[in-house]
Design a protein that fits this description.
The chain has 4 helices and no strands. The chain is mostly helical and 62 residues long. The chain has one domain. Pfam families: CsbD.
Length: 62
């Protein structure tokens, strides 16, 4: 699993993958601030209807 630091470093690439998979996501949905990973996951979960576990797996397993 990628660390939070790796998430920050690879965030632009991950945003592209998320937008590709979930076309309804906007830039506002994908605002990432260090230390606010849970808020980001909550927004993504709300917007996509996916579970937090599935989103974490998508984000951190690639």
């Amino acid at each position: 699993m990628a660390s939070k630091l790796e998430l920050k470093g690879e965030w632009n690439e991950m945003k592209g993958k998320l937008k590709e998979k979930y076309g309804e996501l906007t830039d506002d949905d994908l605002v990432y601030a260090e230390g606010q990973e849970d808020q980001l996951l909550g927004r993504l979960q709300q917007k996509t209807g996916e579970s937090k576990e599935k989103l974490k797996k998508f984000l951190f397993s690639e």
